[in-house]
Amino acid sequence: MAGGFKLALLKQLAAFGATGAFSLLTNLGVTYALHEFAGVAVELSYVGGYLSGILVTYFICRYLVFDAAHANAVSQFTKFLVSSLLFRGVELIVTIALYRQADLPYLLVPVIVVSLSFFGKFFFYRARVFVEKDKASR
Questions:
Q1: 39: alpha, beta or left, given left = phi > 0 and alpha = psi -120 to 50?
Q2: Of all helices (H) and strands (E), which one includes residue 83?
Q3: Mind listing the pLDDT tens digit for each residue in 53-88?
Q4: What local confidence, expressed as pLDDT, does residue 5 receive?
Q5: What are phi and psi of 66, to 5 degrees?
Q6: For 63, which DSSP code?
Q7: pTM given for the model
Q8: Angle between helical axes of 108-124 and 2-36 (0-180°, round to 10)
Q9: pLDDT score of 132
Q10: Vertex 92, ends 89 and 95: CA angle to 5°?
Q11: Would you say the C-alpha torsion 126, 127, 131, 135 has a positive or negative sign?
Q12: Which helix (H) or strand (E) holds 90?
């Protein structure tokens, strides 16, 4: 039973990682399309890209990564949005602090921070935002 749980957890973690990659591609694609094809200023294109990434991540996590479509969508999205913004804020603070304290290349620092944050987000979302149906009834 424990082996099946570990395998299911690893599959879910991989799906969460793929979701992040897909979200990034969506973000970049929307940013590019808004700026290059619609003539939107780069700064507003970034906003559109980030918003699209947030929405894509939410829906994929809700329906595909976690079995959480049973929950109230508005409440769940609010938790997701607030926690995502908090995670990004903490990532920024830790990135700046690590850059100032460690003798590491500046582009490596956010890669390290976001990689570690990935696991924190996964387990937080799994336990608090996208609570699966069988766990929500306990």
A1: left
A2: helix 73-101
A3: 999 999 999 999 998 999 999 999 999 999 999 999
A4: 82
A5: -115, 145
A6: I
A7: 0.87
A8: 120
A9: 84
A10: 150
A11: positive
A12: helix 73-101
Torsion sign, CA atoms 49, 54, 55, 59: positive
Q: What is the token pair recorded at 7?
A: 């395998």
> No. of H helices and E strands in the chain?
5, 0
Share of the chain above pLDDT 90, in %: 90
Residue type, 42: V
Residues, the chain, total? Answer: 138
Is residue 34 packed enough to be buried (19+ CB in 10 Å), middle (13-18) or exposed (0-12)? Answer: buried
- Closest C-alpha to 61, from 9, 118, 25, 17: 17
